[in-house]
């Protein structure tokens, strides 16, 4: 029995093996490549840079917050992948109805990526590759132990200016 493919917006998705994908989320662009979907990527942001050798030919469509919508639409994507924290809601609203499928993501912790892998693997018919990624992540998380056992530290984590 196949699990339902429901994204962070509650949207149910169907498998699409021949999707034309635009990823507007750097970490997800890298994940799509790990799933073997590089040749289905038809657009990305300028921040989607890994794996560098595979993305050189994939058109840049702006940044995560300032996507060139007309250039995106010119790529004729069947699926555009967005993230609640990374992309503006206005962009999702603008794309709704103009592209066949929006996939909204929102992993908030390391374990949330297990479901993200399964979602992307299911939508793009890469279930086995997604299971391998999930298994590898589960092993890494297990090696880290439970968060309650981690030593407490004070840190300053900066990602923007």
Detailed description of the structure:
This protein is 35% helix and 13% strand. By secondary structure, the chain is of the alpha/beta class. The strands form two sheets. It has a four-stranded parallel β-sheet, covered by helices on one side.
User: Which whole number gives the mean pLDDT?
Assistant: 92
Rg (C-alpha, Å): 16 Å
Low-confidence stretches: none
How much strand? 5-15%
Q: How would a crystallographer describe the biggest sheet?
A: 4 strands, parallel
**How many helical elements?**
6
- Tally the beta strands: 6
- Give the termini distance in whole angstroms: 47 Å
Order of helix and strand elements from N to C terminus:
EEEHEHHEHEHH
Helix content: 25-40%
Shape: globular
Give the helix/strand class.
alpha/beta
Strand arrangement, major sheet: 4-3-5-6
Topology:
Layout (H helix, E strand, L loop, with lengths): L4 E2 L5 E2 L7 E3 L2 H9 L6 E4 L7 H4 L13 H6 L4 E5 L5 H7 L5 E5 L6 H12 L3 H18 L17
Parallel strand pairs: 3-4, 3-5, 5-6
Antiparallel strand pairs: 1-2
Helix pairs in contact: 5-6
Features:
161 residues; alpha/beta; 4-stranded parallel β-sheet; two-stranded antiparallel sheet; 35% helix; globular
Brief summary:
This protein has 161 residues and is α/β, with parallel strands linked by helices. Helix content is 35%, strand content 13%.
């Amino acid at each position: 029995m196949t699990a339902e493919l429901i994204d962070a917006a509650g949207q149910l998705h169907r498998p699409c093996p021949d999707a034309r994908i635009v990823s507007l989320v750097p970490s997800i662009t890298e994940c799509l490549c790990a799933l073997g979907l590089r040749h289905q990527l038809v657009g990305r942001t300028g921040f989607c840079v890994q794996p560098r050798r595979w993305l050189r030919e994939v058109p840049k469509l702006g940044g995560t917050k300032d996507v060139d919508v007309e250039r995106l639409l010119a790529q004729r994507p069947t699926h555009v992948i967005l993230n609640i924290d990374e992309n503006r809601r206005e962009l999702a609203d603008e794309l709704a109805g103009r592209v066949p499928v929006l996939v909204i993501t929102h992993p908030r912790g390391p374990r949330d990526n297990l479901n993200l892998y399964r979602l992307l693997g299911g939508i793009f018919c890469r279930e086995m590759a997604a299971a391998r990624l999930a298994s590898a992540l589960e092993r890494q998380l297990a090696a880290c132990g439970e968060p309650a056992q981690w030593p407490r530290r004070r840190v300053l984590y900066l990602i923007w200016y």
